[in-house]
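tool_call: predict_structure(chain=1)
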Amino acid sequence: MQKKSIEIWVGLFVVLGIAALAMLALKVSGSTGTGGDVYRIHARFQNVGGLSVKSPVMVGGVRIGRVAEISIDKDDYSAVVGMDIAEHYDNLPIDTGASILTSGLLGAQFVGLDPGAEDIFLQEDDEIEITQSAIQLESLIGQFMFSLAGNNDDEGN
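tool_result:
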């Protein structure tokens, strides 16, 4: 009888461990959602870099939403990013700016919002006008190398 009791406790412990690992996996992957009602806003960027759907949208380091969709405008070939913002953050001014930023040196990219000062707020399907595209490290290195090569040519003449 004591052996059966130990087996039941071990089985219960294993089931609880698996449930805890599943909850941790959902939390880390961000699949738990934004936690309620959302409204969608859009922003246009020339380059979104490594931004992906479900990337966070942050204001001052606080996650207020997620990237819901990324598409191409067929007219001007700019990237259009749709963001789902939690409804209780409904006081973002209409002159809010959006930038694609990187968390850390090799971290994932996210959309950072910089609230403006207007008294009119963003509503469902509004578009953010002030944007800054992702910075491409390869392009910066290329510009730096090109400027070094140009300086060396000037010194030689």
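agent: The two ends are 95 Å apart (CA to CA). Proceeding to next step.
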